[in-house]
Write a structure and sequence with these properties.
globular, 14% strand, four-stranded antiparallel β-sheet, single chain, binds adenosine-5'-triphosphate, alpha+beta, binds magnesium ion
Amino acid sequence: MATNRTFTMLKPDAVADGHTGAIIKIIEEAGFKIIAMKKTLLTPALAGKFYEVHAERPFYADLCQYMSSGPIVPIILEKDNAVADFRKLIGATDPSKADEGTIRKLFAKSMTANAIHGSDSDENAAIEGSFFFAATEQF
Ligand code: ATP
Ligand code: MG
């Protein structure tokens, strides 16, 4: 995948609360183009695989349970400097520390139910995008 792409996922809290449209509007207005998108549901095992890097962390079990608790919306996005700009747009992991106007400040409920995911590197953006979308869907 090109380095001007990132991967995001609207998490179960944001989708269940009906914020899908509002969040996508913010993302598009910030200049990101939607490359691939769908609504799907992770099993606990698949959530565990997606967040495998956190397997040893104390919050891992809660995170996997939460991420499989309802539908999510995975999306591949494109924009210059996509990974860094998108992390700025979503704000800090802990919503109480997120800047005003960021997606997490607006929509996150807690450290776990924090509305949205954003890849932390070009390499992980490619890996995570391919976790949800076939190569033929990433055009
Ligand atoms: P994400 O990867 O979801 O975009 P992030 O990169 O800001 O979030 P990570 O450190 O990768 O943060 O953590 C992944 C997810 O695990 C967080 O989004 C959050 O839902 C959860 N998480 C991280 N740290 C904690 C914590 N201390 N307590 C509870 N949940 C946590
Ligand atoms: Mg992360």
